[in-house]
Each structure stands twice: as C-alpha cells, then as structure tokens.
TrEMBL record:
Source organism, top-level taxon: Bacteria
Protein name (Swiss-Prot/TrEMBL): Uncharacterized protein
Length: 173
C-alpha cells in the first residue's frame, strides 16, 4: 500500500533531480540588470504621452459619453451624501467618494495615454457619434448601443440612490 502512494512522489523526485541537472550553470541565461524607466521631466509637454491614431476621432466613443458616466456617478454619490451624510455613514461615504475619484482619475489619466486623433483631424460631434458606429473590442456597434451600454448601469444606480434616500427619509422617525 505504501509503495502505491510513494510511487508518484518518487517520480516527482526523479523529475526534480533531472531538472536540477539540466539547469546547470552553463544552461542558465545571465539575467539582464533591471534598469528603471527614466522619468519624464516636468518641463516636457503632455504631447509626448499621446499616441496618434488616424481615424480614432471618427470611430471611437465621444468624450461627452464618458463625462456623462462620471456625472451620473457623481450625482449618485451626492444623493447619498445628502441623505446619509451624517453620523457613522460618513466614513463609508468618504471611502466611496475617494474610490470614485480614483476610478475617474485613472480613467482620465489613461485616456491621456490612449490613442488620440492626429492634429487637425476632425472629431465627430456627439450627434454624429450616436447616429454612427463605434468600434469596441469585439467589433462594431451603433453609437446608441454604446451609449446605452455605458449609461444604463450608472443611471440605474442613481435611481436606486434616490429611491433609497426617499425611503429612508419617509420612514426615519
């Protein structure tokens, strides 16, 4: 019985010995030293961070839709602060506010590093974006579908915040 249980361990041990023998000093590649990236000097303009992508102003999501998502989230947090912004709930609301600022700050920062239209290239209007097509990771969708996908969840969260606030105000003694 013990030999059956020990057999896999012995096979594993043989593989380990064979692996150690195969990885001798002559088979190990020398590691390249870690060179930290050079920081961007504060005197440089932000243009060095942009990656010009032709056509992105005509195929991407309009910036107003991203601002609408951030605005709906800010309205939800403001509704929670108006209703629950006292006592023990202030700590949780503070965390929610900080996390929201971090999220949308990173979203803004990453959009600075994202593909940008070439200088002088026309960027379509919000109406053109909604009436046209938008390219996403899985292919093309209509602009209205993109807006619906982006704005549905934040709008539902805002409605939930208002309903919870109303229920709390009407039932709190």
């Amino acid at each position: 019985m013990t030999t059956l249980l020990a057999a896999p361990a012995m096979r594993q041990g043989r593989r380990s010995v064979a692996r150690r023998q195969a990885i001798g000093p002559e088979n190990v590649k020398p590691q390249t030293p870690f060179i930290p990236p050079s920081p961007i000097a504060a005197t440089q303009s932000g243009e060095t961070l942009h990656r010009v992508q032709p056509g992105v102003g005509l195929t991407g999501v309009h910036p107003a839709m991203v601002k609408a998502v951030a605005g709906l989230y800010a309205a939800m947090v403001a509704a929670f602060w108006l209703v629950f912004g006292h006592g023990e709930a202030m700590l949780a609301l503070g965390f929610i506010t900080v996390l929201g600022l971090m999220f949308f700050g990173l979203l803004t920062g990453m959009s600075l590093l994202a593909d940008t239209p070439a200088p002088g290239e026309r960027i379509r209007s919000l109406n053109d974006c909604l009436a046209g097509r938008v390219i996403i990771d899985t292919g093309w969708i209509s602009g209205r579908e993109a807006a619906l996908q982006m704005l549905t969840l934040p709008a539902c969260l805002l409605v939930t915040a208002v309903v919870l606030g109303a229920v709390y105000r009407f039932t709190a003694g």
